[in-house]
Automatic annotation (TrEMBL):
The keyword Transport does not apply. The chain crosses the membrane at residues 150-173, 194-216, 281-307. Gene3D superfamilies: ABC transporter type 1, transmembrane domain, P-loop containing nucleotide triphosphate hydrolases. SUPFAM superfamilies: ABC transporter transmembrane region (SSF90123), P-loop containing nucleoside triphosphate hydrolases (SSF52540). This is ABC transporter B family member 26, chloroplastic. The lineage of its organism: Eukaryota, Viridiplantae, Streptophyta, Embryophyta, Tracheophyta. It holds the Pfam family ABC_membrane.
Length: 713
């Protein structure tokens, strides 16, 4: 009875053909189809399957569904023994299937075939940026570096001198050799002197050129990152509802780096080779115009191929940047949520998610490399054609006495120079196209208009009492225009009043605070501050008057003292910082830390409640006219309640600093002492009054209070 070996393999296995057993490799996937994460609609590469399949009919290697393992290779008795004729027939069918796939695939890899298709839909990458032309990109780059145009001018001057001196070297070299052959000593010495001079000029100017272009490049990347970063920071908050951190940091990092090659490398080499190519062509035409024209024809074909290749590279580069950004996005998200990933044991899924983007990247890179191969093939063929033409026609011309050997030598040297210059220009234009492709999203983001809040300056009030009035305020988030989050909200916070906003989760409490902070503008109605519409106030001045503590505050990676001072525009001494920390009940735990207020804040160092107390100290230090506390939910509840109650107590006891307080509370016991309680339900204000009044009303607030009391009991 034949034995059946099966194993799940990622690499092919080979077995000696002398075996008398049926060897079956368990491979559940059909052999030539890429997994679902390959580029959609792209013609797959038969050998690019991540789990290559061995197909060897002569070895009787087949597919089988069942396995039992010995050292990773399973051995079974074949449950349904089949005759060797049947096996051979199956193997032959498989072979024919593979062959058919290859025959179908091969035409698609010819130039213009479907395999090369890199359409945006295929990759399913959201390409937001409008295509940027090379000229537009260069114009923008010039705008960024034009402040230091002296470097660019120095670079171009050095480039011209270096190019001219380099291009004259073959002339003086040939002239020296042939004058020596003719024993013309004077001409020989003159040519050698000029050759040395040209070599020296070329060396010095090349050095200056490289250095100046390098400086210009460094400045370009620096300014690009500066401009992009400040453009991002000045966007409306709604912009960050749709863009992810991973994507944006990828633009700042990888994309700007890719663009960094433009001036130092691409433009530098394109100009240098263009100048040298033009010089060579003129020289060739003066030597022999028929030979010169035939070289020019070959170079034109090369230029046409190069143009096509450049366009392809530009598109693929843009896709590479998009896919890289998406991969970064996944990595950034997973790493920032690593605790959740660990607890739920989803490491493999996350690796899979990241890998699927890497696969897409590999698919595009595969096409890029294949295109590069085609380009090199074209260049080599055309390059050797010029040599053949030069030798053939040049030889015939020498035999006919139309041209001297010296002229032919010069011709061969300069035609090589011309074709190499064309190649270099082509290569660097394609690099330039790639850089421009990569820069599309960067320029798109740089061009975004800043939030209108930073452009128009509003009114600054002489004094602020802290009266806040919501008048028929309705709002929906820009990212969800069909969902109205708050509707026709009306309530007033009087100066120095403590108002609590309560309600079920998702009822719109934090949204009201977002509107008050002017992170978003109401879609209807308005908010009045001391009777003035909030949208007419100067946003910077307004935010200076507010102290805000969010639900789960994040701290900066700096020492505790700097974290408390963060954003405080007035001069503050260390005593002020400690006073604010005492008010926020943070002083004791800060003093107990090894370096006290100098301790560097680390994410793991402080508990959620401690971070919240530091954030409260930060808010208090600003001595705000309006204090907003968004009490933490969930795990922080007990500690948060204690913190918030402490703040409310100190606000009450400190008669010097009168401030209005808005507190969003989940634990209703926190806010019983509030002057007034506003109850939210489904985006509406449903009740408004003191704790006692609302209990008497026996509405939603009373129900919520009873529920929480029952839960505690
Ligand atoms: N940036 C946003 N983009 C789109 N929708 C949002 C955004 N922020 C909040 N929402 C939605 O608005 C609604 C109200 O959210 P909000 O945070 O104001 O509720 P909340 O009462 O403060 O909830 P919680 O008590 O859980 O903090 C929710 O349905 C939420 O999904």
């Amino acid at each position: 009875m034949p034995l059946l070996l099966s194993a799940t393999l990622s690499q092919p296995l080979f077995f000696p053909s002398s075996t008398s057993h049926h060897i079956i490799i368990n491979k559940p996937q059909p052999p030539l189809i890429r997994p679902s994460h390959s580029l959609n609609n792209l013609v797959p590469f038969p050998f690019s399957s991540p789990t290559p399949t061995l197909y060897a009919p002569s070895l009787r290697i087949l597919f089988a569904p069942k396995s039992a393992s010995i050292n990773g290779v399973s051995i079974h008795n074949n449950p349904e023994p089949s005759s060797s004729t049947q096996l051979n027939a199956t193997a032959a069918a498989q072979f024919l299937h593979t062959l058919r796939k290859w025959i179908q695939f091969l035409p698609s890899i010819l130039p213009g075939g479907k395999w090369w298709d890199l359409s945006d839909d295929d990759v399913q990458v959201q390409v937001l940026a409008q295509p940027v032309t090379v000229w537009r990109a260069l114009h923008k780059m010039w705008h960024l570096v034009s402040r230091d145009r002296w470097v660019i001018f120095a670079a171009f001057t050095a480039l011209i001198f270096a190019a001219v001196s380099e291009i004259s070297i073959p002339h003086f070299m040939t002239a020296s050799i042939f004058s020596a052959q003719k024993a013309d000593v004077t001409v020989f010495h003159r040519n050698v002197r000029l050759l040395v001079l040209m070599c020296a000029i070329s060396g010095i100017c090349s050095g200056i050129r490289g250095c100046c272009f390098g400086i210009a490049n460094m400045m370009l990347v620096k300014r690009m990152r500066e401009t992009l970063y400040s453009s991002l920071l000045l966007q409306d908050i709604s912009f960050f509802d749709t863009e992810t951190v991973g994507d944006l940091t990828s633009r700042l990092g990888a994309d700007c780096q890719q663009v960094s090659r433009v001036i130092g490398n691409d433009i530098n080499l394109i100009l240098r080779n263009f100048l040298q190519g033009t010089g060579s062509l003129i020289y060739l035409l003066t030597l022999s115009w028929p030979l010169g024209l035939s070289t020019l024809l070959i170079c034109s074909i090369l230029a046409a191929v190069m143009l096509r290749y450049g366009k392809y590279q530009k598109k693929s580069a843009r896709l590479v940047q998009e896919v890289t950004a998406s991969a970064n996005e996944v990595a950034q998200e997973t790493l920032s949520l690593i605790r959740t990933v660990r607890v739920y044991g989803t490491e493999e899924e996350e690796v899979g998610r990241y890998k699927s983007w890497l696969e897409k990247l590999a698919d595009i890179s595969l096409r890029q490399s294949a295109a590069y191969g085609f380009w090199n093939f074209s260049f080599n063929t055309l390059y050797h054609s010029t040599q053949v033409i030069a030798v053939l026609f040049g030889g015939i011309s020498i035999l006919a006495g139309h041209i001297t050997a010296e002229k032919l030598t010069k011709f061969i040297l300069y035609s090589e120079w011309l074709i190499f210059s064309t190649w270099w220009v082509g290569d660097n234009i394609s690099n330039l196209m790639q850089s421009v492709g990569a820069s599309e999203k960067v320029f798109h983001l740089m061009d975004l208009a800043s939030s209108s809040q930073f452009i128009t300056r509003g009114v600054k009030l002489q004094s602020l009492t802290g009266q806040i009035e919501f008048l028929n305020v309705s709002f929906h988030y820009p990212s969800r225009p069909t969902v109205s989050v708050v509707q026709l909200v009306n309530f007033v916070v009087h100066p120095s009043e403590v108002v609590a906003i309560v309600g079920l989760s998702g009822s719109g409490k934090s949204t009201l605070v977002n509107l008050l902070l002017r992170l978003y503008e109401p879609t209807n109605g308005q908010i009045l501050i001391d009777g003035i519409p909030l949208k007419n106030l100067d946003v910077e001045w307004w935010r200076e008057k507010i102290g805000y503590v969010g639900q789960e505050p994040k701290l900066f990676r700096m020492d505790i003292s700097s974290n408390i001072r963060y954003g405080c525009t007035r001069e503050v001494k260390q005593e002020d910082v400690e006073w604010a920390a005492k008010q926020a009940y943070a002083h004791d735990f800060i003093s107990a830390l090894p370096n006290g207020y100098e301790t560097l804040v680390d994410d793991d160092l402080l508990s959620g409640g401690q971070k919240q107390r530091i954030a409260i100290a930060r808010a208090i230090l600003r001595d705000p006219k309006i204090l907003i506390l968004d009490e933490a939910t969930s795990a922080l509840d007990a500690e948060s309640e204690h913190n918030v109650k402490g703040v409310l107590r100190s606000v009450r006891s400190d008669s010097r600093s009168r401030r209005s307080v808005i507190v969003i509370a989940h634990r209703l016991s926190t806010i019983q002492a509030a002057d007034r309680i506003v109850v939210m339900d489904g985006g509406h204000v449903v009740e408004n009054g003191s704790h006692r009044e609302l209990l008497l009303k026996d509405g939603l607030y009373a129900r919520l209070t009873r529920k929480q009391a029952d839960a505690v009991a």
